[in-house]
Amino acid sequence: MATPVLDKAEAESSASPYITVTFRIRRFNPEVSEDAVWEDFAIEIDPKERVLDGLHKIKWDVDGTLTFRRSCAHGICGSDAMRINGKNRLACKTLIKDLNPEKPITVEPIKGLTVLKDLIVDMEPFFQAYRDVMPFLVTKGNEPTRERLQSAEDRERFDDTTKCILCAACTSSCPVFWNDGQYFGPAAIVNAHRFIFDSRDEAGEQRLEILNDKDGVWRCRTTFNCTDACPRGIEVTKAIQEVKRALITRRF
Amino acid sequence: MSADTSSAIGPVESGSLYDVDNPAPLIEAPRKRTGKTPRATRGNFEMAAWLFMRLSGVVLVVLVIGHLLIQLVLDGGVSKIGFAFVAGRWASPFWQVWDLLMLWLAMLHGANGLRTVINDYAERPNTRLWLKGLLYTATVFTILLGTLVIFTFDPNIR
């Protein structure tokens, strides 16, 4: 009874886990051509590995000119957000087996930001919007000699938006941001939300005024692209609506 | 010393395609944020517009569904509509106010919706300007004409 089961397990472990996966990558090199082109790379890879491992394999073994950002490679630093199979994700959190490896896996830079080379975009407009909402604690009066204490409930109020890693997956999936890039974008609003609803912070009113701008929260069309794209599972659209509600209830 | 150092450096593997006389093409940013975000200056028009959309939407649901029921479903449906039917309804100030409110709210609601669509989809400032100009002209014309008709309606015309 036990023998066939063992046989089967042995056969499985001896078979190679590697399969051939085609990566279809959007290449752009301004020193070679003004046009971006698709390039296919067929590599042998274990489907239980991540898209980032595939990109590494290509860069290290096949074509060293392939350029992309990554730092920690474990979903914390937010460097490797890219458009994989038409959806913004972190390459280091996307397993190949979850992507239908039968078909070519398309990898593109995130949209709405200037592409510098291959998968690298200019993040400056994104961080400019982030800086504009003053993402730091602002307080008045004397500094306490110990920590600024906060109740668990007060902490819970903005817990969701503290998870942001600034990968730009949300902002670069927002169709309003794609238009002219003047919209603050979900990421900036999420980080404003994190301080607006922090009981220790005293510049909430100022941040609300900044987001009341014509390129602020009122341009949100609640398409939920940002919530779908967020690799940390932040309810981005909900956070934006909470800022809208705060703006309306404070004024009336 | 310096001569030794420079001679020790090997030649560059492959020369760049570009040099001073033949510079690499400049990639222009398709979109740029201004260095500093301007402070909200002209009140909160966007907030007012956003609120108006929600509030007028709620009122319009009642007005439009009531209008459709009366015009198309109740009491013989669409076949009863004629000059006499409209004249009879507009004899009462209640229906005048109903229709006036519906005209204004629906036109402003629709115009504001189209304004945001133009803002979101028109890429060049000139296209934006012309589309919005056309939109505002059509809106003002329709609202004024409709208001004029409701207020100056004469059942004894002809």
UniProtKB/TrEMBL annotation, chain A:
Pathway: Carbohydrate metabolism; tricarboxylic acid cycle. Binds 1 [2Fe-2S] cluster. Binds 1 [3Fe-4S] cluster. The lineage of its organism: Bacteria, Bacillati, Actinomycetota, Actinomycetes, Kitasatosporales. Residues 19-113 form the 2Fe-2S ferredoxin-type domain. Keywords: 2Fe-2S, 3Fe-4S, 4Fe-4S, Iron, Iron-sulfur, Metal-binding, Oxidoreductase, Tricarboxylic acid cycle. This is Fumarate reductase iron-sulfur subunit. Its EC number is 1.3.5.1. Pfam families: Fer2_3 (PF13085), Fer4_8 (PF13183). SUPFAM superfamilies: 2Fe-2S ferredoxin-like, alpha-helical ferredoxin. Residues 154-176 form the 4Fe-4S ferredoxin-type domain. It catalyses: a menaquinone + succinate = a menaquinol + fumarate. Belongs to the succinate dehydrogenase/fumarate reductase iron-sulfur protein family. Its cofactor is [2Fe-2S] cluster; [3Fe-4S] cluster; [4Fe-4S] cluster.
TrEMBL record, chain B:
Pfam families: Sdh_cyt. The keyword Endoplasmic reticulum does not apply. It is found in: Membrane. The keyword Phosphoprotein does not apply. It comes from the Bacteria. Its main location: membrane. The chain crosses the membrane at residues 51-74, 94-114, 134-153. Keywords: Heme, Iron, Membrane, Metal-binding, Transmembrane, Transmembrane helix. This is Succinate dehydrogenase hydrophobic membrane anchor subunit.
